[in-house]
Write a structure and sequence with these properties.
heterodimer, A: alpha+beta, eight-stranded antiparallel sheet, two-stranded antiparallel ribbon, B: mainly alpha
Chain lengths: ~400, ~190
């Protein structure tokens, strides 16, 4: 354990962007990505609030060896998050491979272990909690956090509306991680999940018990925002016990009209019913609303729409300073212009790629240098100008 | 109580107090209406207090008077503060207090329906997942039966056969040595937590 390690991500992989943000999946004009995650814990250990450092290390090692050998994908990347360079941790958050909490090393119910700010001196120099992530390569569609709020957080993230596909994959991964089944199987090295017949899969937070599943769909809803219909979606989803969050997930405001809709109920509702509700009812309805709003704008308020999207493109093409928030907001407007057919000189893929590359860690990796905030604003504007040059 | 009837174009108004209205048979509903959720949570709280009072010195993982998990030492007060359990056995230790919370957070859900581990529950797990007063049964057999029932329950819910689902759920509760603690999985209640 001698200081931070070199980056686990090649520059080429960083520049390539992320598969889930390709915009190639079903209903890609509205649905950015589909994500299914499962919360699991290893039987025989307390949850992370009550583990000793030695137990955490033991869980990490147990899970790592299991995740890397059970055949999830031909190639798996393992990152010891607690030893990874800060840039890699941010990079993984931006690629939606790990949560912000996992990057920071928050011990559930405790305080942040990693220093966020170099000027902040921790009261006691606590060792960063051992934690990791396993990622399928090269597509990064499967990622599994170890020692987050639960011992295991398994996720599958796909481009477009692909919930059934995502669920099938995560179900398969879940079975592989758990190990061989059946009454005659004598698994030696398989993991046993904490489970009770009444409460289902047992998780640190009771809001996840039962199936331990969270289904979440990221939608681009600028039409509903402009026509002031977004509140209707919020109300309807609240009535159905769904959560609506922003681009960056839990606790984030909507940035650039990207919204994530996810379930909150995990006890008493089987996975199949939840998936059916999402794929056949809730999401198609929201897609329908958004498309209707876009059609309305094109037919009745075309000039307003044109002004909005071209003004955004103009700003991106000429700005000399850009914050990540402003870049995301303008790219969102340009994306609306592209998917409604108004803007023809930029592709959806280019816009999607820029959404990722304008974020702090991606920007620094692509340009190959560490920069402070002010320098990043300049470089971000330069990069966007170059990529969207008329 | 106000009653307005229109007969042959003529308007008849009656103003009665509640007891007179009841006597005349025009009161449409019982005067006091308590939401079913309140009734349930009151009932459950009372029941769990009674259980806790009786179960004073019962075996491992039963709630002790102060509400502490015997396995990891987490107190119920600590759980309320952090929102996080200390270990899998906390769910057994705090089962009575948790039931109404879970029901609120999960649209009325109180029992798991859905995927279960592929391997039969090991002896220790099956034992800790059952109530302390459950009769001695072969845990493997019981686990298998429970898994079957859970599967049937999932199918019934998927097919929106809620009466059938309710029966299966009751059967599940009986097998686990519990009474039915809440209303059916079909009921939707507003206000999930977090």
């Amino acid at each position: 354990m001698t200081g931070p390690r070199p980056s686990a991500f090649s520059t080429a992989a960083v520049e390539r962007g992320a598969d889930w943000l390709r915009g190639l999946g079903a209903d890609g004009d509205v649905v950015v990505s589909s994500r299914v995650r499962l919360a699991r814990n290893v039987a025989g250990f307390p949850f992370l609030t009550k583990t000793t450092p030695a137990q955490r290390q033991q869980i990490l090692e147990l899970c790592r060896s299991r995740l890397l050998t059970c055949g999830i994908a031909e190639k798996m990347l393992w990152v010891d998050v607690h030893q990874a360079p800060a840039m890699d941790r941010t990079l993984m958050v931006e690629r939606h491979l790990i949560s912000k909490e996992h990057a920071k090393g928050v011990i559930p119910g405790g305080k942040t272990a990693e220093k966020e700010d170099a000027t902040e001196e921790p009261a006691e120099p606590a060792a960063p909690p051992p934690r990791g992530v396993a990622v399928s390569l090269p597509d990064e569609s499967v990622s599994i956090m170890v020692n987050e709020e639960d011992h295991l957080r398994l996720q599958v993230l796909l481009s477009g509306l692909e919930l059934s596909k995502a669920f099938e994959r995560i179900d398969q991964v879940d079975d592989l991680v758990e190990g061989p089944g059946g009454p005659d199987a004598r698994p030696v090295k398989a993991l046993e999940y904490a489970y009770s017949s009444r409460f289902g899969y047992l998780t640190a937070c009771p809001t996840n018990i039962g199936t331990g599943i969270r289904v979440s769909v990221m939608l681009h809803l600028p039409g509903l925002k402009i026509t002031v219909e977004m509140d209707k979606v919020r109300r309807a989803t609240r009535d159905m016990s769904l959560a609506v969050r922003g681009y960056y997930g839990e606790g984030s405001e909507a940035a650039g009209e990207f919204y994530q809709i996810s379930n909150q109920t995990t006890l008493g509702k089987p996975e199949s019913v939840l998936l059916h509700e999402f794929e056949q009812e809730i999401i198609p309805q929201v897609i329908g609303y958004e498309r209707a709003a876009r059609t309305l704008l094109l037919e009745k308020r075309r000039r307003l729409l044109e002004d909005k999207v071209y003004r955004a493109l103009g700003t991106l093409r000429f700005a000399r300073l850009l914050t990540p928030e402003e870049a995301l907001s303008l790219l969102s407007d340009v994306r609306l212009g592209v998917v409604t057919g108004l803007i023809k000189e930029v592709t959806e893929q280019e816009v999607n790629q820029l959404i990722l590359l304008t974020q702090p860690a991606h920007l620094q990796r692509v340009l190959g240098k560490d920069m402070d905030q002010a320098q990043r604003r300049e470089s971000r504007a330069d990069m966007v100008r170059q990529k969207l040059r008329a | 109580m106000h009653e307005v009837t229109i007969k042959g174009g003529k308007r008849h108004e009656k103003h009665l107090c509640e007891s007179c209205a009841a006597a005349e048979g025009v009161a449409p509903q019982p005067a006091v209406h308590t939401p079913i959720t309140d009734l349930l949570s009151k009932y459950i709280t009372a029941q769990s207090e009674a259980v806790a009072a009786v179960a004073g010195g019962s075996p491992v993982a039963a709630p002790v008077a102060s509400g502490t998990c015997a396995v990891c030492g987490l107190t119920y007060a600590q759980f309320r503060q952090s929102g996080l359990m200390g270990c899998p056995d906390c769910y057994t230790a705090f089962e009575a207090q948790l039931t109404p919370l879970l029901s609120r957070a999960h649209e009325g859900g109180t029992h798991h329906v859905g995927k279960s581990p592929r391997r039969p529950l090991s002896r220790a797990k099956a034992a800790s997942a059952t109530a302390p007063d459950a009769r001695a049964v072969d845990p493997a057999q019981q686990a298998q039966r429970l898994a079957q029932l859970n599967k049937k329950l999932a199918e019934a819910i998927a097919a929106e056969q809620y009466e059938k689902a309710a029966k299966i759920r009751d059967e599940l509760a009986r097998l686990e040595g519990r009474g039915t603690e809440a209303d059916g999985p079909s009921s939707r209640k507003p206000g999930g937590e977090t």
